[in-house]
Amino acid sequence: MLTHQLEASSSKVEVLPGFEGPLPFQLETGYVGLGETDDDIQVFYYFIKSESNPQKDPLMLWLTGGPGCSSFYGLVFQIGPVEFEIKEYNGRVPSLVSRPQSWTKICSIIFVDLPLGSGFSYAKNLTAHRSDWKLVHHTHQFLRKWLIDHPEFLSNEFYIGADSYSGLVVPPILQEISNGNEKGLQPFINLQGYLLGNPVTTKTENNDQIQYAHGMGLISDGLYASLQKNCKGEYIDVDFRNELCLRDLQYFNECLSGINKFHILDSYCDVDSLLSRRSLTQELKESLSSHLTVPELSCQIYGNYLATKWADDERVRKALHIREGTIGKWERCYTTDFEKEIFNSVEFHANLSRKGYRSLIYSGDHDLVVPFMSTQAWIRVLNYSIVDDWRPWFVNGQVGGYTRTYSNGMTFSTVKGSGHTAAQYTPDQCFAMFTNWISKLPL
Fold first, then answer.
1. SS3 for 35-95, per residue?
2. What helix, strand, coil percent values describe the chain, rounded to 5?
3. Of the segments 184-193, 230-239, 260-269, which one has the largest average pLDDT value?
4. Predicted TM-score of the model (pTM)
5. Percentage of the chain surpassing pLDDT 90?
6. pLDDT 10s digits, 265-314
7. β-strand partners of 28
């Protein structure tokens, strides 16, 4: 009986601690069991039904990057219906407020705690399950089992959305789903396409950081010319004997040492030196003993701190129906024991395009981590003909970014003034972009 209980469980969440009043959307949380026996792996998820027409609106599974981060990040910081109210933590449950630009207005979304080790998912042997390909297999298995438990969504158009590091694993996930459909795996998944924001795709994106930094005026013409001459366009894994290139790279890093690479116009916060002003003495002691860095309130990452406090609150865990004793301290992300196995996902994009799947690849144009020009470079490699050439797209009469559409059903878009996780920085623009694309309308 216990094994059957662990195989799949779902519960409706009526009240969220920190959010005033009843939820204005339908939230379900639950577990899906994976592995050889039902209790080997338990994957936790948050499911939010479309606030418009869940019977007909698309269904999307969202993965955050990392590697090793829970998709809870996407829910509360990017595209979900609630977000943290950024105010100084006072020992109470951090406050949640509504996000008017939630993508759940027009789409049902599953936010999943994968890869294992993030969020509330758990397993008997975590370290045996942390790699790119295991993440691919786990996501595919999770989805089919979830749909067995939610047959009312089998006919809905299905998409996967993701950003950052997940640009490497999502195309293989889609290919595995597609291959499974062709082999007759049940239930059939009505896969239509995918969308990726500032996606890591070739793991050579760092090479384009040099050109981007020069174009944005972060390094001088002289240093740029010297880097090109001495490094010959290769800035990753430089030969230690190439002293001139290494010298230039050191100077480059010094020039960018005070820049927030995730959004070059945003404030720079040195996380490691921010055990700063805490009004609560106990809070400071706790932070020091647990190595939990408390950022300044003005830093965007203060939200991460609030998220940890929120998820570790017993009232929150009870409301979310978290199984007692399965998770100690909540970890949004983990950084150890993850085996990186997929180093280029371009061939998967090509395969998916041949099968007719739609895709939206978008780039916040102030991201230095995965610059938009590196994304444009691998799209050019696919060599698809252009059907709608480079043009601005608009939100409320203002340019929201620039877009180009290709014959293979791929749309590329920049998001003007946005950073690495675009919806976090420019929610209005990204909601408009997503609304048009998911509705099969031009941007």
1. CCCCCCEEEEEEEECCCCCCCCCCEEEEECCCCCECCHHHHHHHHCCEEECCCCCCCCCCC
2. 35, 20, 45
3. 184-193
4. 0.92
5. 78
6. 998 987 544 333 333 333 333 433 344 567 788 887 888 899 999 999 99
7. 12, 47
Regarding beta strands 108-112 and 59-63, do their DSSP bridges make them parallel or antiparallel, or are they unpaired? parallel
Regarding whether 223 and 175 lie in a shared domain, the answer is no
Shared-domain flag, residues 140 and 77: yes
Mean pLDDT of the chain: 90
- H-helix or E-strand spanning residue 320: helix 314-320
Containing H/E element for 259? none
Query: What's the confidence (pLDDT) of residue 230?
Result: 97
Give the structural domain span for 223.
219-255
Domain-located, residue 289:
no
**Angle at alpha carbon of residue 333, lines to 89 and 321, rounded to 5°:** 70
Q: Which residue numbers are catalytic?
A: 164, 367, 420
pLDDT of residue 227: 97
Q: How far is CA 423 from the centre of its chain?
A: 10
What's the Cα-to-Cα distance from 394 to each of 198, 422, 442, 443, rounded to whole Å?
A: 20, 16, 11, 8
Q: Which two tokens stand for residue 106?
A: 């027009």
Q: How many domains does the chain have?
A: 2
Is residue 262 in a domain?
A: no
